[in-house]
Write a structure and sequence with these properties.
The protein has 20 helices and 36 strands. The strands form nine sheets. Strands 18, 22, 23, 24, 25, 26, 27, 28 and 31 form a nine-stranded mixed beta sheet that branches. Strands 2-1-7-4-5 form a five-stranded mixed beta sheet, sandwiched between helices. Strands 8, 9, 10, 14 and 15 form a five-stranded antiparallel beta sheet that branches. The chain is 35% helix and 27% strand. It folds into five domains: 62 residues, Ubiquitin-like (UB roll), CATH 3.10.20.30; 174 residues, 2-Layer Sandwich (Threonyl-tRNA Synthetase, Chain A, domain 2), CATH 3.30.980; 228 residues, Bira Bifunctional Protein, Domain 2 (BirA Bifunctional Protein, domain 2), CATH 3.30.930; 42 residues, no CATH class; 90 residues, Anticodon-binding domain (Rossmann fold, 3-Layer(aba) Sandwich), CATH 3.40.50. The mean pLDDT is 92. By secondary structure, it is an alpha+beta fold. It binds one RNA strand of 76 nucleotides through strand 9, helix 6, strand 14, strand 15 and helix 8.
Amino acid sequence: MSDLVKVTLPDGSQKEAARGISVLDFVKVHIGAGLAKAAYFAKLDGQPVDLTRAIDADARLEVVTTRSPEALEVARHDAAHVMASVVQQLFPGTQVTIGPSIDDGFYYDFAREKPFTPEDLERIEAATNAAVKADHPFLREEVSMEAALALFEGQGEKYKVEIIRDIAAKGARTLTLYRHGGWVDFCLGPHGPSTGRIGVVKLTSVAGAYWRGDSRNAMLQRIYGTAFFDKKALDAHLARLEEVKKRDHRKLGPALGLFAFHEYAPGSPFWLPAGTTLFNVLQEAMRRLVNRNGYQEVKTPLLFNKRLWEMSGHWGPYKKNMFLVVDSESDETLPLDERCSFSLKPMNCPSHHLIYKMGRRSYRELPLRYYTTDALHRNEASGSLGGLTRVRQFEQDDSHIYLMESQIAAEVRRIVDLMKIVYGAFGLQFSLMFSTRPPNPADRIGDDTLWDKAEGALQAALEQIGLPWQLNAGDGAFYGPKIDFTVTDSLGRQWQTCTIQLDYAAPERFDLTYVGDDNAEHRPVVIHRAIYGSFERFIAILTEHYAGAFPAWLAPLQARVVTVSERFVDWGRAVAERLTARGWRIDLDDSNDKLGAKIRNSELAKIPFTLVVGEKEAGAQAVSPRRHGGEDLKTMPLDAFVELMSREATPPY
RNA sequence: GCCGACAUAGCUCAGUUGGCAGAGCAGCUGAUUCGUAAUCAGCAGGUCCUCAGUUCAAAUCUGAGUGUCGGCUCCA
């Protein structure tokens, strides 16, 4: 065996070095001091490793520097370790559990009787940053499972011991320990070279979290935080959080008169006049779109006898999510549960199936597409409610499509075409996720053969569409696999909105059939699909996407006429009336405020156009429009503005 | 549901140790008639989330409830 190893760099070049050289030394000697200084961790043959790792065999080497998002991820995990060590110092008796890095930072879960207070958090943050500055190296060590167990048992770390037993049960023989400044945790790694390289740590919140996320387990104390290599990046992150807060639909919605909540109806929005307008614009646009594309709108009852849910399968695991209704004519001596023979519908599908069954269906009718926007009610856990994104009453642009298996791929493509039209209109990018059967058979209905068929058909459709997609194994609905669409808004945040779900189970349960060209009965397949998802959630997303400044076609109020003084109210009123007569949503500010104040009010209301009307305009049948944000469109004849509105204030679909 | 924080005028927020509930904006009235982000003056506005308790006295202290907010596996 040669005492040299061959190292292949990402550009394809190869270098030889002494066997056993550490990654860091290799970089320093064979690449350059600059890279060695910027290096945070490395990958050997694609495996993330510490810079201290020895290169024992020929390998591909990739150095990950602090400019890489991957390094930041590692640094945040480093920060979680440092914070945990500080917490154990500051609060003796606190047990550690796990502390991964997450999207925008990290968290660490601690087992402790007393929750951390915001003041504790400040102390922990200060001490963590001090520990970072102390610049302790991260030291890696591999020990036997027995040694690891002895170590953490000796420290009384019950949760760590439980994790080690789990890892051992999976067949691991050794455990990797990481130490810094005398504190030890086990961890897959890699870590950065030393705590000083982390940069700056900021703790953001404390929260309760169940051990392993299961509400039957003990409640742990979770501390959330984030870390950045420098203060400037942290400040940029905090500024972004400010922007997110400013756009929060829960703030903007009530402020703009879109919607509100009342404690008498937790989780169910009141749609105020402006919000109802916005809702209706979206609803009418979607109605036109689906009507043009072969869908038929139907309306079905909100309240159903439980026999329907027994048939659909909702009366099983889903029952806890339904609002049950007492039939006042039922026997009052019966237990409450038995008197609740009705429920508000949580989904539209079963009632669509009932319509399907109201006649004998021919293959010539397929695909048969029903569309409904009825209100749905789901009893979401009180603690999970929030704004318009998690509600108990909502409306979906919901469709169920009955078709033959051979039509699935084409139909999925048709749906995706509609999605492109709709999301394109808002400038929202989307990506696709394919979710397969829930792993636990108790969480799904239908046998494996059905699931195999459903997953196979949907995947085939996906491949025909040709858009990139990701697999989300195990995340399907209880009745079938699905394609979820994730949209990215103007702040780069991702939202899951529409969905296409394939359902082989419902046609069985409801005994849905059609007569084929062979004059025999066959089972149709059902596709569940929504494009907006729920109107509530979609309006929340749009509100934040546009920061409340909706484009002219969507805005509840499309233009406001403001008069320069009382002398021009006649022309101002005429302008408002003529535009209103053309179907646009217009109002008039003829108050005796000064022009500047009127402009300000109009800007604060985020109205797309403010039309200034004064002496110049009154004499020339003209208006001077100003766009929201300040762009002055200069004086133009009213007819020219009508032209402009026709282009911008008309729904694009 | 569970853990934690919070709840004062329509909104944003002050309110000391338990001692008469405040400001700005919005609203109303009047004056002003004004050219692209706040004209001036006056007035009015309160179940201090709800219910109970402690106290001579509660927005303030205690308990219960309601609602809202941050969370409740992105798994060493």
